[in-house]
Task: inverse folding
């Protein structure tokens, strides 16, 4: 089954190229270095890791370094003049720009609502579909369907449903027997962000249901049996067996939702373009608007960097929480 | 004697109560799950049904259950309309080509790197591993804007008048949609983890039989790692097919647009909702079919992505 290479015999034999006069320590090291098998292993390792490593350097490491460099410059996407360093001007500008500050606030509000609601709802769904009853797999699949639907499609679809004469208003109208006057959800600064929060949770909650579910399934059944023998109620079982067993899952779920929520972009771009009156503009939306649409790469990079710092803080907190658990 | 009978009847009664309680709870569970299923499905049912109706009827149906039923003036006219207005077949081809390239090249490049990291001793291994772990948390949104600047400066080869020349700038190409997403730190991480569960003694045996390292990778490790490849393929397929922010910025030429960006342009120019729903249905249906066919693999892939924490 294996292909035999012609030079195979050399591979396993030690190379006798080291002069015997040298000291033993160096001899061993030198022998190891010049051993053809070891050398070939090194070369193979380097060669097989190289394509991925090179691509990661080109399209991850360099762009990160560029984000730092550009954020201290006045670079433009297309410009006859080479970029010039301008110190912390871009950051000073950001923190005195009302649109940036509003975008930051919107991003925090979005995350503050989405993180607990989506995590909680996901756990509720996971507990529901973790029961051993017939047809439960079908429900798991149904709850997961919005996750595989593109967020662009979801945004367009919900924009249609949020129209003044759309499905959502008609539905509310019929369950309140006409007491409700239709509202243009996305055109009202008071309701636009809330409307986007609802569809964002609708789209992503199935993903976290599955993460919670895999956490639930790591909890041994014997623990529940023992709890039942001691006469624990369903709620007591959840509070004393399920919940403690979900610590690390919880940290993972909270961190992934937080990072995704802070990166809110597509829904805004498709549905509201940040409006009305910047009530739905977000950090990433603002970075793209400034850095790409208005071609101010330097300023856009500075906003991206601020977003990155937020994400870093979240993951440092995660590190701290998971370490705490291990102690 | 009497105490015994009383005890038995008590036990029987409580058993009965418990069974009844359990049945009632099960009924409630089903009711709750059915309500939730309706909540998760109604927008999609509405989308598919509306794509078959003329605009006037979509609006007049929206205040009754008819919004979710394929009744009235049903036709595929909206689909024909989409094809008339935009080169949607070209968009589909672009998306499929880009997605297949990212997933295919990604499986090769990332699994080779995972193999080198998990099974070989070489200089720089620790550094590369640290690099990959460190880059796991960098969200794409952080580097998107600087990366537009970066790819606009990269050298590229172009065919011009039968000559191979080199030029600068990757904007408006297929490569700019593919190459940056081939290597993926999380894919490498998953492969590394999976490969390290395969006993190393297999490698040694193969070495003695005279196999080279690449042969060991291709003939032994790859065939043993089907689940890892399936997981990585699924986890890279969805973001590649759904990619929006990046092609929005780097592809202006209509012929190179993927479906998602093509749809957003179509949506901005067009308020004929029936046609918009036809477009969204067209690009949602293939993914749904793939998902339903491989739902078991999808579910375990997502569960596997949870190991990250």
Result:
């Amino acid at each position: 089954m294996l292909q035999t290479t012609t030079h195979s015999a050399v591979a396993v034999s030690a190379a006798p190229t080291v002069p015997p006069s040298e000291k033993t320590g160096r001899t061993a090291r030198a022998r190891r270095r010049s051993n053809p098998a070891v050398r070939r292993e090194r070369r193979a390792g380097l060669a097989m890791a190289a394509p991925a490593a090179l691509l990661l350097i080109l399209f991850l490491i360099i762009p990160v370094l560029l984000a730092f460099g550009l954020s201290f410059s006045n670079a433009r996407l297309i410009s006859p003049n080479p970029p010039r360093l301008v110190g912390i001007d871009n950051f000073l500008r950001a923190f005195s720009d009302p649109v940036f500050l509003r975008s930051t606030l919107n991003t925090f509000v979005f995350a503050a609502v989405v993180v607990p609601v989506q995590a909680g709802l996901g756990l509720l769904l996971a507990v529901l579909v973790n029961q051993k009853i017939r047809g439960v797999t079908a429900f798991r699949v149904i709850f997961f369907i919005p996750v595989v639907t593109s967020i662009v499609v979801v945004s367009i679809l919900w924009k249609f449903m949020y129209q003044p004469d759309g499905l959502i208003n008609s539905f509310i109208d019929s369950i309140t027997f006409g007491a409700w006057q239709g509202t243009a959800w996305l055109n009202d600064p008071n309701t636009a962000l809330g409307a986007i929060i609802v569809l964002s949770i609708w789209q992503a909650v199935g993903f976290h249901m599955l993460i919670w579910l895999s956490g639930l399934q790591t909890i041994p059944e014997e623990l529940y049996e023992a709890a039942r023998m001691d006469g624990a109620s369903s709620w007591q079982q959840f509070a004393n067996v399920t919940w403690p067993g979900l610590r690390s899952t919880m940290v993972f779920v909270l961190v992934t939702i937080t990072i995704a929520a802070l990166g809110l972009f597509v829904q805004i771009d498709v549905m509201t373009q940040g409006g009305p009156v910047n009530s739905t503009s977000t950090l990433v939306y603002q970075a793209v608007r400034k850095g790409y649409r208005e071609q101010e790469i330097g300023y856009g990079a500075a906003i991206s960097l601020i977003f990155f710092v937020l994400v870093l803080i979240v993951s440092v907190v995660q590190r701290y929480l998971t370490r705490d658990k291990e102690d | 004697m009497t105490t015994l009978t009383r005890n038995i009847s008590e036990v029987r009664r409580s058993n009965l109560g418990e069974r009844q309680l359990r049945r009632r709870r099960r009924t409630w569970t089903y009711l709750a799950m059915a309500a939730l299923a309706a909540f998760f499905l109604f927008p999609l049912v509405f989308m598919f049904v509306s794509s078959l109706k003329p605009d006037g009827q979509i609006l007049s149906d929206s205040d009754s259950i008819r919004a979710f039923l394929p009744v009235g003036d049903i036709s595929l006219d909206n689909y024909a309309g989409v094809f008339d207005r935009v080169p949607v077949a070209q968009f589909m081809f672009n998306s499929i080509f880009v997605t297949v390239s990212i997933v295919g090249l990604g499986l090769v490049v990332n699994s080779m790197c995972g193999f080198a990291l998990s099974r070989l001793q070489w200089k720089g291994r620790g550094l590369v591993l640290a690099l990959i772990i460190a880059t796991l948390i960098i969200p794409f949104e952080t580097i998107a804007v600087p990366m537009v600047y970066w790819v606009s400066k990269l050298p590229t080869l172009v065919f011009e008048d039968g000559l191979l020349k080199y030029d600068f700038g990757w904007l408006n190409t297929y490569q700019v949609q593919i190459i940056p997403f081939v290597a993926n730190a999380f894919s490498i991480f998953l492969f590394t983890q999976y490969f390290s569960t395969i006993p190393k003694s297999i490698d040694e045996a193969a070495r003695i039989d005279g196999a080279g390292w690449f042969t060991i990778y291709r003939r032994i490790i790859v065939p043993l790692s089907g689940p890892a490849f399936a997981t990585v393929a699924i986890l890279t397929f969805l973001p590649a097919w759904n990619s929006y922010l990046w092609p929005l910025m780097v592809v202006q030429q209509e012929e190179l647009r993927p479906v998602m960006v093509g749809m957003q342009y179509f949506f901005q120019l067009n308020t004929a909702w029936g046609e918009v729903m036809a477009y969204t249905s067209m690009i949602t249906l293939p993914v749904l079919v793939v998902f339903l066919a491989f739902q078991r693999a999808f579910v375990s892939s997502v569960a596997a992505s949870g190991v990250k924490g």
Observations:
- The longest helix of chain A spans residues 36-71.
- Residues 20-70 of chain A form one domain.
- Residues 1-23 of chain A have pLDDT under 50 and may be disordered.
